[in-house]
Amino acid sequence: MSIRFLSLALLVIFVQQAAAASKTKEWWKDAFIYQIYPRSFMDSDGDGVGDLKGITSKLEHFVDLNVSAIWISPIYVSPMADFGYDVSNFTDVDPTFGTIMDFANLTAKAKALGLRVILDFVPNHTSDKHPWFLNSVKKVKPYDDYYVWMDGKLVNGTTYPPNNWLSVFGGSAWKFNAERGQYYLHQFATGQPDLNYHNLAVIAEIEAALTFWLDHGVDGFRIDAINYLFEDTEYPDEPELWKPDLPADDYDRLDHIYSRDQVETYTLLKAWRKVLDTHSKKDKETKILLTEAYTNLPLTMQYYDAGSNIPMNFMFMTPLDNRSTTRDFKRNIDTWINNVPKGHSPNWIVGNHDQHRVATRYGRKRADGFLMLSAVLPGTGIIYYGDEIGMEDRNMTFKETVDPAGCNAGSQRYRLKSRDPERTPYQWDNTTSAGFSVNNKTWLPVNPNYKTLNLAAQKTDPSSHYSLFKKLVALKKMPIMDTGEVQVILVGYEVMGVVRKLPDTPPVVLLMNFESYALVIDARTWMNIPEEMTVLVASVGSGIPSGVVMDTTEILLPAGASVILMG
Which of 224, 238, 387, 392 is catalytic? Predict the structure, then answer.
């Protein structure tokens, strides 16, 4: 294997090209969006829970990273049965996080720093403490029909739920309300009754809420659980799946063909697109929609034509895992890219608040590779807070578990369902509570590895996860990532490669070793790339330094290592 060091001139040129790349049109394409889980990002008042002032105090972090936007998980007024995803007022901030003025200060500072702000929006349901629901229980008009209410089934003198539908969090999707004398639908927690989108008044209320936040400076919305908005109005039983290893009331025991993915969803999204377009014209910049729907590819692709700029792509999270092969990834990546409608672009989600952290899902050695993959592939990359420093899940005891999905699963199965492990406080430094709070007690325990795994330590280390991610953000902004040809190539069955090419421009090449042992590969022959290429960046722990010139006919890739080369 032939390796020699090159001057940093090529890296300097790379940074200059990235800085010069214009992103005035469709700013979210070929950019990174950073998700913040506000309870866990930064606590400004010492109560052990993150808040808006905390986020505002750390906005320079995103400027340093050079990401294009931050997406903030729900901050609305909520009793916090599902930590903000159970909304009791769509047009105000929960005191846990601060005030409307705090949000205004955040957006004003973000815009001054060149950052966009995307807000999580939760339209499928409200809290059972929302005034709409309290009035609906009492049949007060016009709220009597704001939710999905049904009579139970009477069998041999006993009343049962209207059908066999199950909640995502386990158990029946129906709960009986004694005061009203009917069952209400809740596809998630019992404290999250589903809104009735066959009621035009509900649609008007939600559009008013979207407008409220657009008027308060948001640059777009991530729409939570959008494919649950409509149900078949006949409410038939759903087909059972043969999964005897699961409890009878586990959500995955049914094929949910009547309770989600209904065609009316796309029509409603088109109406919301018009609301955002009105503000886009006023502000002279596109307001974007990200849509969350864990569904099949054809149904996901329909969200593009309905107005979603980013129909969220979860292929890096589910069902792919540490057992997946290079062939699995190549097949899925090619399929996504080939199915994106003309004029639109793909997206690649590395992590979020509902899935185990990338460093836990794939292991420490492979985690950087997925950040690199999201940078090199065309379209938008979306990372979860802490991914940029390699944060990992924290194992929780059942006593520590607060996530309703985990609590409802019980002490024997909570580890399968709880989302707490990936929601622990951000690890800023090695001081009290990882610099997240001055309080020793935080809403979720801090991962004990914060003493060594933290931002402060990585900022001074040129070979850290943080330094790596900064280079990836700059790479994403290069012209070759915008318009360059993309090829996903297997080097044997162990290594997956991605080549980006543009006429009269040196190629950019990513190599990912999926195996637990080192490999020597002839990348030049397999991938038709130059014989000598320079290392832009390599995964942490690989031992491959940046700025090295490699002989591509004989590249040594350590176990689980990934490397990006430039011609």
Answer: 224
Supply 545's token pair.
């330094």
Domain count, the chain: 1
Whether 224 is catalytic: yes
pLDDT tens digit sequence for 318-354 = 755 566 789 999 999 999 999 999 999 999 999 999 9
Interacting residues of 454 by C-beta distance below 8 A, sequence separation 6+: 389, 427, 428, 429, 430, 434, 435
> In this structure, what token pair is assigned to residue 391?
């944060």
List the structure tokens of 207: 């559009």
**3-state SS string for 323-356:** CCCHHHHHHHHHHHHHHCCCCCCCEEECCCCCCC
For 179, the token pair is 């005061």
String of DSSP letters for 71-107: EE---EE---TTTTSS-SEEEEE-TTT--HHHHHHHH
Out of 30, 120, 292, 420, which one is annotated catalytic? 292
DSSP conformational letter for 424? P
Is 26 annotated in the active site? no
DSSP string, 252-289: GGB--SSSS--THHHHHHHHHHHHHHHHHHHHTS--EE
* Strand 89-93 to 174-177 pairing: unpaired
Q: Could you count the other beta carbons within 10 Å of the beta carbon of residue 158?
A: 8
Compute the distance between CA of residue 127 and CA of residue 79 in angstroms, rounded to an integer.
Answer: 7
Is residue 255 assigned to a domain?
Answer: no
Structural domain containing residue 304: 29-124+200-228+262-470
The pLDDT of residue 276 is 98
**Identity of the residue numbered 81:** A
Distance separating alpha carbons of residues 469 and 462, to the nearest angstrom: 11
How far apart are the C-alpha atoms of 276 and 278, rounded to whole Å? Answer: 5
**pLDDT tens for each residue of 305-323:** 999 999 999 999 875 556 6
For tokens 């990936």, what's the residue?
A: 422
What does DSSP say about strands 310-311 and 288-291: parallel, antiparallel, or unpaired?
A: parallel
- Token look-up 């995803």 returns 85
Residue 493: the pLDDT is 87
- The answer to whether position 276 is within a domain reads yes
Q: Are 430 and 438 in contact (CB under 8 A)?
A: no
* Beta bridge pairs of residue 400: none
- Structure token digits, residue 337: 């890219």
Residue 55 phi, psi (nearest 5): -60, -45
Question: How many angstroms separate the CA atoms of 427 and 409, rounded?
Answer: 29
Q: What is the CATH number of the domain that holds 318?
A: 3.20.20.80
Question: Is the peptide bond between 95 and the residue preceding it cis, with omega within 30 degrees of 0?
Answer: no
Is 136 within the bounds of a domain? no
Q: Which residue has the higher pLDDT, 550 or 1?
A: 550
Please report where in the chains the tokens 């729907």 appear, as a residue: 293
243 found inside a domain: no
